[in-house]
Amino acid sequence: MIAYLTSHIGGSYKKNGTRIPTKLSTENGLLDNLKKHWKDNSKVLIISADADDIEVNDSIMNIFAASFPMSGLSISQMYICDNRNEKLVDNISIYDVLILAGGHVPTQNKFFEKIRLKERIKDFDRILIGISAGTMNSAEIVYAQPELEGESIDKEYERFLSGLGITKLMILPHYQDIKDDILDGQRLFEDITYSDSYGRELYALEDGSYFMIENKTTTLFGAAYLIKDGTIKQICEKDKSICIM
Asked: 77 vs 44, 59, 90, 101, 126, CA distance in Å?
């Protein structure tokens, strides 16, 4: 498997409240790296984040069905797996590309568990793309950073979940957008996430940054930060890359 664990891959922009397809992100060599491994006329399966949200799921698929060819990544088929067609994952080996969509981490995590995705991808040897929540749920142990009002103060909310095991890294996307957020009257990072980082390492990605895993080597591309034991430091910059493991 070649995995691209991203914060955001582009592919659309908003105009008058409507999503318009456009090319995928070229930041930090993402599109170029995808093209190196992309098979012509690839069969693509998207795994949804919210299996009940049919309207959003169809919108995601329709956007990507246009934006991937715009980007020079040809496709022959594209489907999205949600509660209408869970059996699509029964034949996961026929697909050339799996995309783990973005959304609410715990909701997606439950769907992954329901369809036994971890078990099904063990022998998948092609391209996997994680986007936002999909990237977070790719971890062996997922840090489900509180996101919705009430989650950070809910004693029953689980912040650490069992993930797909594609990487040992706990990844947080969209750092540039959420670093100053306030949730439940607390600072999302300084008061919540930093406290959760004791004894752990969390990797915060800016949009346009990503991890690429190939031949058991993990390379970080673009601006990213390591949060550990209540502190944060930048470990990579835009247009640069480092080997993580």
From this structure: 6, 16, 17, 17, 16
Tokens encoding 47: 């795994």
Q: Report whether 30 contacts 24 (CB < 8 A).
A: yes
pLDDT in tens, 93-148: 999 999 999 999 999 999 999 999 999 999 999 999 999 999 999 999 999 999 99
CA quadruple 86, 89, 94, 98: dihedral sign: positive
Residue 18 has pLDDT above 90, yes or no: no
Percentage of the chain lying above the pLDDT 70 cut: 100
Question: How are beta strands 97-100 and 127-131 bridged, if at all?
Answer: parallel
Q: 51: which 2 tokens?
A: 């299996």
Report the alpha-carbon distance of residue 224 to residue 238 in Å, rounded. Answer: 8
Tell me the three state secondary structure of residue 102: coil
- To the nearest whole number, what is the mean pLDDT of the chain? 96
**Can you tell me the distance from the alpha carbon of 221 to that of 212, in angstroms, rounded to the nearest whole number?**
8
Is residue 6 within 8 Å of 24, Cβ to Cβ? no
Q: Going edge to edge, which strands form the sheet with 201-205?
A: 170-172, 201-205, 224-228, 231-236
